[in-house]
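Async update (no meeting this week)

Hi team, since we skipped the sync, here's where things stand on the single-chain job. The sequence we agreed to prioritize is pasted below, unchanged from the tracker. I ran it this morning and attached the output directly underneath so nobody has to dig for it. Comments welcome in thread, and please keep replies under the output.
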Amino acid sequence: MEEELTTKKPRIWEIDFLRGLAIIMMILDHFCYDCLFLPRLFSNFYQINNPFVNFLYNDIGPIYSSGVRNVFHVIFVGIFLMLVGISCHFSKNNLKRGLLLLLVQVIFGTIMEVVSFLLKEDFSVWFGILYAISFSILATVLFDFLLKKVKYKQFIYLGMGVILVAIGLIFHQFTQYHYVSEITVSNFFKVILGINAYGADYFPLFPLMGFCFIGKFVGEFFYNDRKSLLPKLDKAYNKPFCFVGRHSIIFYLAHQVVLVLILGIIMLSLGYKLAL
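Output:
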């Protein structure tokens, strides 16, 4: 969700395309979640029994907890973090970029705490995707400093990335982490590692930081000259995806507001009442 550094050089279309595709899939994913949440937001949900709204709740909502969704969720989030790592190769100031994204995460997390208080629901996003991205970027800053005199450092990034992804996937596959209601000294590092989870939109550093490191390797090994690897495939069909990819941070921060407004207008127009 971070923006590449503004430059006069042509953008690499396939990176914007994949980032845009990942953002669009995230928006669809959150739309399914919102549909699943409708009965808790409208007090007379079951009394009206509208067929279209029932379709959203009974058929679209359950996609969020389906096995297919869980598989594709890991794939697209992994791709997105790899793109973050590739962009780290292009950026001239990853420290500034990482700190700015961390600041955005803090502001966004604070806003969501206010929303949680007003709606009396847990929408905390302190460990959301921006948190994972910002800390992954800052980790590349640290390792770039430590490895600045190391030859072929990109292969070290690849090795670290594979190890972190493997550790993270093992945690997810075998430990079956559970959500905690608050962050304490005893569970803090478990939340960081992905053993425990916290908040409504949780993204653990393991394996996501590993995907970022793999992306750093891809950027340095395959995009060292900063040119597209697939220039002949840059056609008109990819423009909408590239547009979303170029403005990914805006779409990330605004999409839930837009989705909630659209669903709210539909529900209120059909006679549903907010459960406030």
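Quick observations from my side:
Residues 13-269 form one domain.
The chain has one domain: 13-269.
Reply here if anything looks off.
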